[in-house]
């Protein structure tokens, strides 16, 4: 089974799809909206390593490292493995399965040649620990089945990158204990985005849900570059108690630079009432699941049809009211990257990290 869609119960098996994909599948099972996509399983990676003697080749290169191992030796080994991997394509039956899943994603979202993020979702025995997640790559705005396959292949190559090999050696982990699953997920195209608190961040009132949102990606809200629109919703009954128009003069659409918001949209609230209520409903649900007030980042995806266009990006316990500093999940300095690939997975897993930013294509 080379493909698991997020709504497939088999996609909750961490050993087969890795932590990232399993987190997305769990949220999907709970009825929480994440950017649509699918996982390419560890079985596909195993099939690749079996092709053309790759597993034996990687073993022989790693055994040849001997004991006097320095970074240069690891880099050299990584380079040799990468060159060999370049010569070996993904097996046809895996490639066909990925192509079919990508075509289905295009059909289901109604977006032809949909742009996706290709994200590593490494699996490993529990003993390896989750500290490993940050070692791998994410690529965004990948369009077309051929390109998707190219970056799935890049994910496979990344397991044997020099810096990863030295990290594994330091932790005394055999690189063959890592299996690379891959998450393919729609790139979020935000018409509007922002933050929702299931408690009033100013008064601590547990009976209110507060949303702050602006046009485009949420970078402008987190970076304090705009005064966002503010909505207050009564938790009981979900009536909108207050709507305050912000000062939304810039927005981030695509690319790292903000653009001016056209005059006709400046004085318009960026969320419709039904979106505010739907988001507040999701906020209540997340608060119930996590048994505590939540701080949630969301986007309204302009490419998806109404009714399935609200996307949750990140969720964690609310900390403002308990006087802890709130650090945005999306590091403004990491730029667009973390917003585009940002996708909620579990309560406290941060999304794409800063070193991803150098891999924009």
How do the strands of the widest beta sheet line up side by side? 9-8-7-6-12-13
- Fold-level CATH name of the largest domain: Dna Ligase, domain 1
Shape, per Cα inertia axes: elongated
Main sheet attributes: strand count, strand direction, barrel closure: 6 strands, antiparallel
Percent of sequence in beta strands: 15-25%
Mean pLDDT: 85
Topology:
Blueprint: E1 3-5, H1 14-29, E2 37-40, H2 42-50, H3 54-63, H4 71-87, H5 92-109, E3 115-123, E4 138-143, H6 145-158, H7 162-170, E5 179-186, E6 190-197, E7 208-215, H8 219-222, E8 229-234, E9 240-244, E10 250-251, E11 259-260, H9 263-266, H10 273-290, E12 294-301, E13 310-317, H11 336-341
Antiparallel strand pairs: 1-2, 2-5, 3-4, 3-5, 6-7, 6-12, 7-8, 8-9, 10-11, 12-13
Helix pairs in contact: 3-4, 4-7, 5-6
Can you tag this structure with a few keywords?
Dna Ligase, domain 1; disordered C terminus; 2 domains; single chain; D-amino Acid Aminotransferase, Chain A, domain 1; alpha+beta; 6-stranded antiparallel β-sheet; 361 residues; 5-stranded antiparallel β-sheet
Quick summary:
Its cofactor is Mg(2+). Keywords: ATP-binding, Kinase, Magnesium, Metal-binding, Nucleotide-binding, Pyruvate, Transferase. By secondary structure, this protein is α+β, with helices and mostly antiparallel strands.
